[in-house]
Amino acid sequence: MLKENLQDVLERIDRASARSISGEKVQLIAVTKTHGLDLINEAISYGVTDIGENKVQELERKKDGLISKVNLHMIGNLQSNKVKYIYKDICLIHSLDRKSLAKEIQKRASQDNIKVHCLVQVNIGREETKGGLAYEKVLPFIESMMDYDHIKIDGLMAMAPHIDDEKALRAYFRKMFDLKELVAKEKFDGVDMTYLSMGMSNDYELAIEEGSNMVRIGSDIFGKRDYSK
Ligand SMILES: *Cc1c(COP(=O)(O)O)cnc(C)c1O
Predict the structure, then answer these.
(1) Ligand 1: which residue has its CA nearest to atom 6?
(2) CA distance linking residue 212 with residue 210, whole number of Å
(3) Which of 31, 109, 171, 195 is least crowded, fewest Cβ atoms below 10 Å from its Cβ?
(4) How does pLDDT run across 108-142, given as a tens digit for each residue?
(5) How many angstroms separate the CA atoms of 197 and 175, rounded?
(6) Ligand 1 shell residues, CB under 6 Å
């Protein structure tokens, strides 16, 4: 099952990227939250190079059991007091959305003299249940990040609202793509708008068509999640 699912997802990504407004290559992040090491390692054996988790403890618990070195992504809300557990292991934090978190990352990273790579999360649907900065706060926030020399901003992340309206979804994704271009034009020091992380199982093809180059896919690869385990 897993092998076929992964194959199918990769083919869909390929086809969607041929229709993308950016024409860029798309990076798949396999979202492994709630799934066990057996399944995750099986996916890695089929060529998955990037995995995403949304909880610090879960990531910490799993990382030493992986069969080979893969890129680890923190995709969920991150509490400042948990930064210390993961800042050295993670290749990209997708959920930078406030100064207090940036301060903590800066503090830890400067002690080790490393740069921590982050995406700025945007709350594109203005949903109270989701993290992320309001659209209009993104540019000033990124400008202020130039004072944080141990944080490297690599792009933007967003989750579209859970709706079926294709036109509305496209509009959200397009707005994110335009925002990425807008920030890129500013040419802020230490800021590269390399990645636009958007698109999940239910909407990744649309997201890619509208310019996403990093998709975070869980259920379409691993099946339904069981949160009771
Ligand atoms: C769980 C999760 C995903 C993957 O969701 P699916 O619908 O299973 O593809 C993507 N992004 C974030 C931030 C998540 O928490």
Answers:
(1) 218
(2) 6
(3) 171
(4) 999 999 999 999 999 999 999 999 999 999 999 99
(5) 13
(6) 31, 33, 54, 75-76, 159, 200-202, 216-220
